[in-house]
Amino acid sequence: MSHELRTPLNAIIGFSEMMALEVLGPMPARYREYAGDVLASGRHLLGIVDDVLDFAKIDAGAIELWPEELDPAALVGEAARLLGPAAAARGVRLLPS
Tens-digit pLDDT profile for the chain (97 aa)? Predict the structure, then answer.
């Protein structure tokens, strides 16, 4: 499962990163923004895939957990950025803290 999901996701992430950085030349600002959204969504989905695979390893007893610190404000900010357009389309306004 890992190879079948990660390989196409890595291609999506790589190509969208190239587009967002305008490696092959300038793009309209709106397209750069779209490429950035695709990039962020691809990275988010890859993180979910990694989490699912990690849970499968945990369930099989094949992984050891290591606690780590995280920044809740950064997590909330990223969630608000990803969900902001969908919220706005439904009349919900997300405000920064």
Answer: 678 888 999 999 999 999 999 999 999 999 999 999 999 999 999 999 999 988 898 889 887 778 999 999 898 888 888 888 899 999 998 876 6
Interatomic CA distance for residues 24 and 31, integer angstroms: 13
As a whole number of angstroms, the distance between CA 69 and CA 90 comes to 34
What burial class does residue 49 get, using C-beta atoms within 10 Å of its C-beta: 0-12 exposed, 13-18 middle, 19+ buried?
middle
Sorted by sequence, the CB contacts under 8 Å of residue 36 that are 6+ apart come out as 16, 20
Question: Phi-psi bin for 30: left (phi > 0), alpha (psi -120 to 50), beta?
Answer: alpha
Instruction: Report, in angstroms and rounded to the nearest whole number, the Rg of the chain calculated over CA atoms.
Output: 17
